[in-house]
Give the backbone structure.
Amino acid sequence: MATKAARTRRARGSLDAHTRRSLFAEIDKDAKATFDEIADATGVSLALVLEELAKHARSELDDNGVPEWWPSSATQQDGFELVIANRREAAPRKSA
C-alpha cells in the first residue's frame, strides 16, 4: 500500500491578517471526505483546497453570480433557513 505524503501547512503569519477569515460549516461527511481526499492527494492543507475551489467556482459565475454548474432547481438557501428556524425553536430558553 502506498503511503500518503503529509499535507503541507502555510508558514505561520503568511496570511494577511486584514484579509484572513475563519470558516465554519457543517457539511455531509461524504463531502468532507472528498475535500480531505483532495487535500491528501495534492499534499496541501484543507484551507488551500477550499481557497482553490472558491477561485475555480468564481471563474464559472454567470451574470447573476451563480456558478454555471449549479442546478437551476436547487433551493439550498430555503432549506438552510428552515434549519436555522428549527434550531431557534428547539433551543432551550434561559429562565430569569
Summary: The chain has a mean pLDDT of 76. The chain is about 45% helix and 0% strand. The CA atoms of residues 33 and 39 lie 10 Å apart.
